[in-house]
Amino acid sequence: MLDEVRKGIAEGARLVLGSDRKRTDGLYVDPVVFVDVDQHSRLAQHEIFGPVLSVRCRRPACAEGGTRT
Q1: Chain segment 31-68, per-residue pLDDT in tens
Q2: Contact between 29 and 51 (Cβ < 8 Å)
């Protein structure tokens, strides 16, 4: 799963919650939230088994780099 998080970062998604590191308290990873996920990226196209949320904007203004609401 950590590899998937790292691939998401490498593909340009912005990590806003969590990290790409394993926890040391017995749990595997923190929940992870990505924004600005491209629709053709691995994060958008594949199911990741873990606490991962990918947010994509579908409004035209977002696709053009406008303000998200």
Answers
A1: 899 998 888 999 889 888 888 888 877 666 565 555 44
A2: yes
